[in-house]
Each structure stands twice: as C-alpha cells, then as structure tokens.
Amino acid sequence: MMSTVLDEDRLRKIKEKISQGMMPQWILNDPAIFDEEIEKVFAHAWQLLGHESELKEPGSYITRWLVHDPILVVRTKKGEIKAFLNSCPHRGMQLCTADFGKKNTFQCPYHGWSFNNDGKLIGVVAGDKVYGEGMDKEQWGLKPVPQVATYNGLIFGCLDANTMPLEEYLGGMKWYFDILLNRSDGGMEVRGVPQRWILNANWKLTSENFGGDPYHVATVHRSTVELGISPQDPLFSGYGYQVVLDHGHNVNINTGVPGLDIPPYQGMPEEMWPMFQKNLTAEQHDILSKCTVIVGNCFPNLSFLSPLHGSEGHLHNYLNMRVWRPISADKIEVWSWFMIDKAAPEAYKQASYKGYIASFGPSGTLEQDDAEIWARVTQASKGILARDKDLSYNNVLNYMMGEGKVEPLDHWDGPGVAYPTCYVDYASRNMHEFWLSLLTGDVNLRQSAVHSEIK
Ligand code: FES
Ligand SMILES: [Fe+2]
C-alpha cells in the first residue's frame, strides 16, 4: 500500500485541523502513520497485559502481546508477577506456545533449553558437552519486559524503562478505575479467558468509539431501541457527563433519560450496596449509585465498558475491558476480558456472563453492530480522495459536536474537565491531540526531571 510521507508540514497541518475540530480522514488508515505510532506511542505507553486473577497461584502463567512482542506473564514461586519476552534467547523461538497454564519451568520446543519462571536459564541440552563447563547461564536468561506494574488488579507492561511510573501515567483515570475495580470487597475477577478476534479496523477508531462516542449508540445499536431495551429518546446515551483527562484518557458517565426509573448501582444486587458505600469516596459512590453506563478509553488502546444490562427479565452489570492490539494500519486484534465483582453471588455472575456473551462477546449483537462500522470506516479512509495527496485538506472529518455550545462544568467532584453531556467531541479531540503531540514530539511519556534525579 502507498504511504503518505510524514514531514513536518503534514504533521503541522494535522495539528492545525484537529485544533479546529477537523480530522484528516487518511490518518485512520495510513502505513506511515502506523509506523510512527508504533515507535512514538506504543513503544513507550503502558498497556494492559491482564488481570491478577488470571494468575491465581505460583507457577500460573498467561501469554500475551505488547503490539508485536510476544509476552510471557508469570507468577513466580514468591508470588511476584513478572513478564518476559516470550522468545528463547538461543534462536528466538517462541518459548511458551500455550495461552495459559501452570508450570515452574519452560522448555523451548526448538533445541530444548529450559528456563524457570524467574526467567533464568536453568538447563541446556548436552550443555557441558557442546558449550563447555564454563557456559555463563546468567547471561542467557529471558529478556524481561522493562516495566511491569499493577493497579487494582490490572497488570500493565511498558516496553520503555524510562516511561513515567504507571500510577503517574494513569493520573486522573485512577479515580474512575477505582469505581470500576475497587468498589466491592475483593475487587474484580476475570471469568473464562479473554476472547480475541481480528477486526479490519484502525485502533484509533475503536479507542475513540469507547472514549468519546456515545453519540453512535442511538443509530448503530438501534435494534436495542426497536426491541424496547433502550429508550426511544435519541439523546438517551447522551445524558450524563463526558470527562476529559490528562494523557489522552477519557470517560463517559451515562445517567439515563431524566424522569425514567433508573435502578441504582447499575442493577447490582442489593446485598452488595453497603460495600460500595464502604469502599468508595462519597463522590465516587454518588456516581456509581446513579449511572447507567460507564464507558471510556485509557490511552492508547485500553477501552472499558460497564453497562446496566437487562436480559431474561434480570438486570445485571459487568466490566468489559478490551485491548485493541494494533497489527497494521487497517487491522487490530481485539482482546476482550469479562470481569465481575468477586463478591457477587454466583448465580448473578453466571447470568451476567451470559449477558456479556450475547451483547459484547465476539458474536454478540452489539459487538457485530460496531465491528461492521469500524471496518467500513477504515476501508473508506485509504483511497485517493481520502488520502488528500495535495495537502489541500479538503477531506476532513467533523469533530465539532458541542463546539461553542457546550461549556465545561464549573464544578466536578472527580479529576478532569467534565461536560454536562456525552454528546460532545471533546473526549475524541483530547485523545487525538495527545496522540499527535506524541507523534510530533511536543510531549513524551518519559519520567519527569524529578523522577530522573531520584534514579
Ligand atoms: S531456540 Fe530455544 S533452544 Fe534453540
Ligand atoms: Fe457501539
């Protein structure tokens, strides 16, 4: 595929357009942009690897990806979580080919070298005979992921040792993650395994859809209205707040159609309500008690959705976390985790899981709606007209919803800048502006001066 030459002039023009609420369409499907994103965004950003509940005991392991790097995540004998490049230092074979399991040593399928789950080389086939007794095994251990850290059970990895610490990177998002992950005793657990599938879509599109686009719900998911699951009011997914955070993170808090009877706490069982009061601050509790949906994106590619969902006459909630793993400019691998409060009753967990599978699982009705759209937008963004070769920038997309019309709230109890509706484009612009500032080098994700001095 032809690629666009990314010179300073082009980047400056994109910046100018985005600041005016217009986005050149070709950035949604361009190989040169994609290569830059890998080097300037994904090589430095914190990305989700999984959840602690997937590594229940010492010896548990899961295999994941950080974009193009295969990663082995383990719980060691001491109970620590570590992550390594899942590639043997002898000839590069993928060391562990299973998705998950339990073992304390890993033997490479190619020539049989073996490693413990601290990453140390502990066995070499015919070692003394072919490498001599003096072989320095210390030198040939697995390559560790430069940074691994957890927040409320979520395990993140970062490919850059100099990126700011995870909590600083999450910034204001921590406050909203607490509502989703830390509201009940014992936190959340992953049920089943993360499902994954390939979509012909650009990762920015899917991140933006969760982070800043409740506007699409009334149209794309219109079947829910026709079935009587969602209200008739076309503004129904706009009521609430859109919150714009540092580092390109965004959250939308839907509160439902005013005047309609909204079940408290997203339909979670009454016996759990006292936990929410105990574990959350008054402000966080207020949000959880009144919201219908919390949906957002942790930059760059970790989206989340916590809906109030009804099926078979029951209401339930779940937390769907998903990573949009970029494969190319027009392809992603979706990783989708179903998470539920550990403290929830078993029957509720099962009903909720069924609800997730039917809605946002890979064959879920709502998932199918979105997948179709994302693929068609991506496809329409690589042609001659979309590419806008002459730099005239006539082909720009509209990111102006709310512009000059909706002002931020004077007072908001949580971090970030909040708007009194989710039908605005401030979150999408926040994400794209931060993305572009990383591409142009105007900002970086390195540790601040203070942190480097401490080091
Ligand atoms: S590649 Fe792993 S032992 Fe040779
Ligand atoms: Fe959707």
Question: Can you offer a commentary on this structure?
Answer:
InterPro entries: RHO_NdoB-like_C (IPR043266), Rieske_2Fe-2S (IPR017941), Rieske_2Fe-2S_sf (IPR036922), Ring_hydroxy_dOase_asu_C_dom (IPR015879), Rng_hydr_dOase-A (IPR001663). Keywords: 2Fe-2S, Aromatic hydrocarbons catabolism, Dioxygenase, Iron, Iron-sulfur, Metal-binding, NAD, Oxidoreductase. Residues 46-157 form the Rieske domain. GO terms for molecular function: 2 iron, 2 sulfur cluster binding; dioxygenase activity; iron ion binding; monooxygenase activity; oxidoreductase activity, acting on paired donors, with incorporation or reduction of molecular oxygen. The protein has 15 helices and 22 strands. With 455 residues, the chain is of the alpha+beta class. It folds into two domains: 47-150, Rieske Iron-sulfur Protein (3-layer Sandwich); 172-440, Naphthalene 1,2-dioxygenase Alpha Subunit, Chain A, domain 1, CATH 3.90.380. The chain has an eight-stranded antiparallel β-sheet, with helices on both faces. Strands 5-4-3-6 form a four-stranded antiparallel β-sheet, with no helix packed on it. α1 (8-19) packs antiparallel against α14, α5 crosses α10 and α6 runs antiparallel to α14 (426-440).
